[in-house]
Each structure stands twice: as C-alpha cells, then as structure tokens.
Amino acid sequence: MLDLGTSFLASVSRDPRALAIVDGETRLTYAAWYARISDTVAGLDRLGLKPGDHLVTVLQNRLEAATLHWACQFAGLVLTPINWRAKPDEIDFAIENSDARALAYEAVSAAAVRASAAARSLPRIAVGQGTGSGTISFADLARPGAEPARPRVGAEATSLMLYTSGTTAKPKGVPRRHRAERAAALAHVAQNLYARGERTLGVMPLYHTMGVRSLIAMSLIGGAFVCLPRFDVPGALRLIAAERVTNLYLVPTLYHDLVHHPDFAGTDTASVRKLGFAGAPMTDGLLARLTEAFRPDLFVNHYGSSEVYTFTINQDAATKPGSAGRAGLNTLVRVVPLGAADPEATAAPGEEGEIAVIASGDEAFEGYWRRPEADAKAFRGGWYFTGDTGFADADGDIFVTGRVDDMIITGGENVSPVEIESCLSLHPAVSEVAVVGLPDERWGKRVTAFVKRRYGTDGPALDAHCRAAGLPSHKLPRAYVFVAEIPKSPVGKLLRRQLVAGAYEAETGAETEAKSKAKAAPAGEPTAA
Q1: Region annotation Disordered: residue ranges (predicted)?
Q2: pLDDT tens digits for range 133-148
C-alpha cells in the first residue's frame, strides 16, 4: 500500500490539470495545489517539526485546512484535528494528550485558543484574518518558492489521530496509519461507485472521519473537493448548482435541512447522482423524500466509525429502510450476544447483540492512544467490539439499534449524556437528571433531558444555565421533560432505556404548580413540593 504522500504524487501525475479544490474564489488544479502543499511543508520544517510530531488543528473546512492535511502526509507529521467549536479545556486536553508540537487555528476558534493555557507554549499558525497574534500566519508559513515536497515516511507511519468521545466524556485518540487511511478511501471510492472527475461538497468537517474520507477519495479519482466551511443551506445549494457537484456524503440532519428548505425546489441539483450518508440512522420518511427529490443512481448507507472506517454498506438504502447492509470490502462483521466474552459466539438472526468487526481489516486502527483500558474493553479475540447494539435479519443484513454505552449521535456528532447531566446537575433546582437521545427526523437523535425538579424552573432557564457554564450549543438539550422520578434499577443504576421507551412518570399538574410557586426559592434552600 502506498503512503499518502506518494498517493498524492500519483494523483498529480495522472491529473495535473484537473480541478482539485475550490474554496470561494480560489480554484486549484492538482499541480497548483501540490506547489501550495510543498510550500506548506517547507514552512512546517522552518517551525522545527519532525516526522512523528503532532500538529493540532482547530479549523473549519477551508483550503488551508485541506492543505495542512496533505502537507502533514508528506512531512510525516501526525495531523490531529479537533472540533473548531472546542472549548479551551478541550484544546488543552488535545495538546497535552497528543504531545502536540504546534497548533493551527482561525478566527472562529481564536478566542478559545487564546484562553488555552497549553496553546501558549506552542508555535501557533494563524489562518486567515481576525486571529490576533499567532506565532506565524499561514500566508508566511506557506510562502511560495519551495522545492517540490517528497514523501518522508512509509505506509506504516501514522497519518492522523482523530478524537472520539466515550461514555466518560473523556476523548479517546484514534491513531490511523497511512495504509489504513488509503485503504479506507479506496473502499469509499468503490463502495460509492465514484467515477473519475467526481465533485463532492466538502462540508463534513475534516476532524471527522467522513470529511477526511471525502478529501482523500477525491484525490484518488482526480476529483474536486468543494469547501463549505460551515453548513448553511443557501450556501450548500449555491455550491451544488454552481460547481455541478456530483455526489453528496452527509449526515441525515444536513440532508433533512437541504430538502426542507424553501430554496431547494428552485435549485438545479440534477448534477447530483450519488447520495451517501453515515454518522446516524436515517428515518424512513427522509429516505423517501430524498429518493423523490434527487432520483439518485446510488443511495448508500455507510455504517462505520473513526476506528474502523467501514463496518457495513447498504448500496440501496431506500429499498430496505433501516438496514445498514453487509460487511464492507475490507472487513468481516458479526453480531455477538450481549455480554459475551467470546467473539465466536454469534447471535441468532433477529437476536440483539453487540456488533463486532474483525480487528485485522485493512481499514482498522490498532488501538487507542495511551488508553490500555479502552483497548481491553474494545478488543477481544482478534475482533473489535463497536459498542453498538444491533441484529442481523434472516438475509444477513445488519440493523443497528443503539449504543451499548448510551452515546447520543445527533446531527452526526457524538454527544455524551454524562457531560450534559453533570452540567445540569449543578443547577440548584435540579434534583436528578438523565439525558437520552430520542428519535428525531432532522437530528437523528434529539438530546432530551429528563429532570426531577426541587423547585420551579423551566427549559429556557436550564438552557441559560448550560450556556453560562460553557456547554457548546450542539450539546444543549433540545427538549426537557419534567418527571416525578428518574427510573433506576434496584441497585440505583440509571435506566435510560426506560426513558427512551416512555416508561416514566411525568410530573402531575399539582406537582408542577407547587414547584412553579416555589420558583423563587434561594439556591441552597429548596422548597419541597
């Protein structure tokens, strides 16, 4: 397997004049982009970065973010991208956990970077305007005139490290080798039947495995990555029409927003012939709506993760709604009975269990970054246990039913209920709280907080509390349900599944009235209902 630097050189050799990337008014061919990437490699050298060093990026999808991605592949650096909405303590964690040697950021993340204690000790690459004083601007870093870059590492080197959340809300680093990244991109091309010269809407973030896969896949076919830094429907529709985008690879939430926007009907989307989705389940209604709206030649449900890019593929998603299909090109998949230690103990058709994939697949990672306890939980007998629950039907197709660890996937983002519960529990009116994901056509899962109140409060007040505490907007509950009791097991374990199933007792009218009257009770002196 080629390393990714050599892979990009092959793309330049095959298609030097093909359009490679679009960002606003900037349009670069593969040959021109290679020159820009080479300039960036030289700049990273001047910063003193060496193969194996981590570069943390806090960037939206833009030319500079994609250029840094490829420059790291040539230079042998480990790109470590994080959410551009990250809070200062999350930036601190990524820097310290990865032993990062430099950081790149832009205006949207500048305030958080300035507040990050760990960032102050690093060289900081400021991208674009409005970033304040970084160590060096990206324009200076990538000043023209460098010698053509040559790959410095092989296929076994680490390409990047993504972070994925766990039940404790402490992110886990997922290091991925060049060969696994390229194998995943090749499979992505094959499984989505991409042809030479495709154009994709580059809106899935480059800190997310879907965004990275789109970027690399386009390079393999001489295709174009059309940057959309932050999703907005009018901007997406404008780019689809103007750039003649041929394929979309999005989370269901973004599809929902596209087809339900008033501008959709008047936009020429005929160039889009292939649809793919991942990151969350898609409702039957949305599947039908998209099929009607686009009449795609191919509609792919991709089920996978940061750790092992492809688990399963359903290339005709609308025909069998809810089915994640069967194992992808580079893996084996099975459903193991819940709690089973032996991966050979396969669940019967229709029996819900934990979904496991072979750990030696070409797309697979080999273990979490400095998290042996996470490795011990995830790997058993040569198989990677996904933490997802599901079953195989009589045809052998996989259906995903939820998460073993109750992670909420909303709008394609992993959200830990523990973090939200911790935040809400600090409000003086909250006696107990449990957060779950309930089905939602737009978001996939709607973050819902079930709250047992000490005294009167309401959703807006709790939202204000969460915002003041620094909880990011995508983690805010979208609904609050006030209950008489939070369901628990005899040993006091929270029973989230009962909440999801509707097996809870809501506050009575009398309780609500009593707590509303007690709303003015001072903190620390709750009034009994």
Answers
A1: 507-529
A2: 778 999 999 999 999 9
Residue with tokens 């819900």: 352
The full length of the chain comes to 529
All residues at 6 or more sequence positions from 330 whose CB lies less than 8 Å from its CB, including other chains: 183, 184, 187, 310, 361, 362, 363
Cα(106)–Cα(128) distance, integer angstroms? 6
Highest mean pLDDT: which of 368-372, 437-441, 484-488? 368-372
Boundaries of every domain in the chain: 408-517
Q: Are strands 383-392 and 398-403 parallel, antiparallel or unpaired?
A: antiparallel
Determine contact, residues 209/306, Cβ cutoff 8 Å. Answer: yes
**What tens digit of pLDDT does each residue of 415-468 get?**
878 778 878 988 999 988 989 999 998 889 999 999 999 889 999 999 999 999
- Measured between alpha carbons, how far is residue 395 from residues 283, 293, 313, 428 in Å? 21, 29, 14, 52
E strand segments, 178-262? 199-202, 224-227, 247-250
pLDDT band at 509 (very low <50, low <70, confident <90, very high): low
- Cβ within 8 Å of residue 510, ≥6 positions away: none
The tens digit of pLDDT for each residue in 199-244 reads 999 999 999 999 999 999 999 999 999 999 999 999 999 999 999 9
Superfamily (CATH H level) for 408-517: ANL, C-terminal domain (3.30.300.30)
CB of 219 closer than 8 Å to CB of 42: no
Alpha helix stretches (DSSP H) within 406-452: 417-425
Quick one: which of 335, 380, 341 has its CA closest to 353?
335
Nearest CA-CA partner of 364 in 395, 327, 335, 316? 327
- The radius of gyration of the chain from alpha carbons, rounded to an integer in Å, stands at 24
pLDDT at 169 exceeding the cut of 80:
no
